[in-house]
Structure formats: structure tokens, C-alpha cells
Amino acid sequence: MTRAQQTVSIGLLISSNLKLYLACYLQLIPFGEKIQDEIIPVLPLWALVSFGAYLLFKLGWGVFAFNDVPEAHKELMMEIETARKELKSKGIDVD
């Protein structure tokens, strides 16, 4: 799946979920009073928190699995060494 297809798929998913939420919030889809008053109003907050948790997991997994990409690790170490040499040539002490 290309990046454009992923973007379109995510856009369609978000728009359909938004339409469904609005239908529930405007009481076009009947639910019990407890669900309508206590659950549906907090669904956007729940979705935002869930999305944030997913992004934190993805970030943590990327950091955890970084050493599994030896080319990127070597490239980053070379860039760090180059930066150290440049800073030392300018008289800045780097440990």
C-alpha cells in the first residue's frame, strides 16, 4: 500500500467515525439514557487518549528496536564523531 493510499484510507476511516459519532451525539441513533448522557460525550477524549497511547508505544518501540538497524546505527555514530571533530576544531571541549 502506498503512502497516498494509506492517507486516503485513514481519511475515510476518520470521516466515517466522525459521522457515526455525530449521529450518536445528536441522538439520531437511539441509545439508553445512561449511554447517551455519560458515555457518548467522552468518546472524543477517549479516542484522543488512545491515539496518544498508541503513538507513545510506537515511539518507545522504535527506540527499543533502534539497535536492530545496524546501518542507521553506524550512520548515526559517524555523524556524532564528525560533529565532535568539528566542535573540537572550533575549540569546544566535548566528552
Q: Average pLDDT across residues?
A: 90
- Strand tally is 0
Instruction: Count every helix, treating DSSP H or I runs of 4 or more residues as helices.
Output: 4
SSE string, helix = H, strand = E? HHHH
Low-pLDDT runs of 5+ residues are none
The coarse silhouette is: elongated
Counting helices, strands and paired strands, the structural category is: mainly alpha
Please describe the topology of this protein.
Layout: H1 3-25, H2 33-39, H3 43-64, H4 70-89
Structure description:
The chain is an all-alpha fold and 95 residues long. It is built from four helices and no strands. It has helices at 3-25, 33-39, 43-64, 70-89. It is elongated, with a radius of gyration of 24 Å. The two termini are 45 Å apart.
Offer a few descriptive terms.
single chain; mainly alpha; 76% helix; 0% strand; elongated
Q: Can you describe this structure in just a few lines?
A:
This protein is an all-alpha fold and 95 residues long. It is 76% helix and 0% strand. The two termini are 45 Å apart.
